[in-house]
Queue: 3 jobs
Job 1
Amino acid sequence: MIFRKKLPLKNQILFLETLAEMLESGFSIKKSLEVLANSDAVGAHAENILESYVSGVDFINAIMEEDIFSEEVEVILKSSASENLVKGLKESLRWLNMEMNFKRSAKSAIVYPSVLLFVAHIVFYIILIVVVPRLERGIMAAVEEKGVFLSVYIYLSHHIPVAIVINLLVIGLIFVSFKTGMVYKILMHMPGIAKTLKIRASAMFFTILSILTDAGISLVDALHYATNVKGFEKYQDDIETIQETGIEQFFETLYEDGKYDVVTKMSVITGITSGNFEAAVRNVARKESLRFEEIQKNMSKVIEPLAVALTVATVAFLITPLYSSILNVVFSSMDKM
């Protein structure tokens, strides 16, 4: 299988936006894909999807085979089904736009900390290349006990390639932490960010439920899709016993686990008891999405202080022990005089 890179976010938006507009205007799927195939941004992918679709593959499966969207968008698209395709495309598009805004907020929030970290790296290598060697030739030459931390710096100043490799390994570890979801799990326990991520997951969960229930799919089947959302996976086992425990208990469990607030809980329970669950879920999905959208606009206020604090802590960890060791060496030399 040929590895295909995910489409850039702006191209994903272009693809779904154009496709939704054309289908809503009465164009067939085949004709819409033929038009998209002429686009420089998404043309190659549209051609591949069109080829699969014409050969008999279901349209949504043809998109999945091309593997150009994130897992979250794929879940929404899979849940849309043929009966509610346009709504699925629009919900996916809305989610991508929120994702775009979220990333913009996050990027703007880490600009200043990134500058600090870059400067810290420069200072770190200046210390290794210039400061430590001069100290070695000077005051430290007469001192035997240099301390562990200072000895490490001396070793790294003699082996700059080793320092660079360690530096790259740390950066790689950070990258792997993001890719494996480890950072997500850590953030889930941090005030402010944890709340934002929970609202984000809740908005996705109810968005999928809204698409499926509007399409006439049973609630149990809809929940099988919706519990693919990150943070809701563990509730898939509860769906198997939902006939015994009741739907109300399923949503009560979500509330008790802090997946949404009491207002959302009351809306859902009221919808279930009144027999108007579809409208209730649709309303909750809209409200949760609006909450997430509002919070992400102020994301820089949450991320920037945290990022600055972590950056300062990192710099302090690298620099403070060094100067503490140097001062210790200076005072030890003075005592011997």
Job 2
Amino acid sequence: MYLMITVASICAVVLIACLLALVCRHHKTLWIASDDVILCFVSPVAIMLATFGFISLGWRITHGGLAAVPIGGWIGSAVIVAAAVATWLLLARRIREAGRAASRSGAAP
């Protein structure tokens, strides 16, 4: 269970960072891509999730190591990673298609 929470936190940080970079590249006018939102909301959330994830991973390594994780934890972690990858593929495709449509219609991306 601890490993699944750790993996979920780290996957959330990676997903937030990658999707935000994609939004900033293709849709500079969206509210989520503004400097204020990134500095005041997105960045603190990502920092808290990353801190929790890596401290949790460190705790797991110092208290029994990764070999002490039951098989259910590994299966759950694999499902979480697969869900994060599927979310990335789906949302990245939508963001890119919307950016292309906006550039074709003449609207500022």
Job 3
Amino acid sequence: MLRIDENILEKNAVAIKVDGVLDQDAILILKNVCDRYLNEKKDVFLNLEGLVHISREGRNFIRDIQPSVSIANLPKFM
């Protein structure tokens, strides 16, 4: 299960806090949220502090999206 909290920081920036498990099913949800803001040319700050597990596909997704977003609190198990 994945929980995503979106917080508009300013006109062109959003913070996205992610809690739970980032697995194959949850990747599509997080990708859609990130893509929505990236398509609007907003700066995206992704806070991964609340993740308790990341699948192989989830790790690959985070690596792929890193050039486009700022990532904070990357779990040690990543």
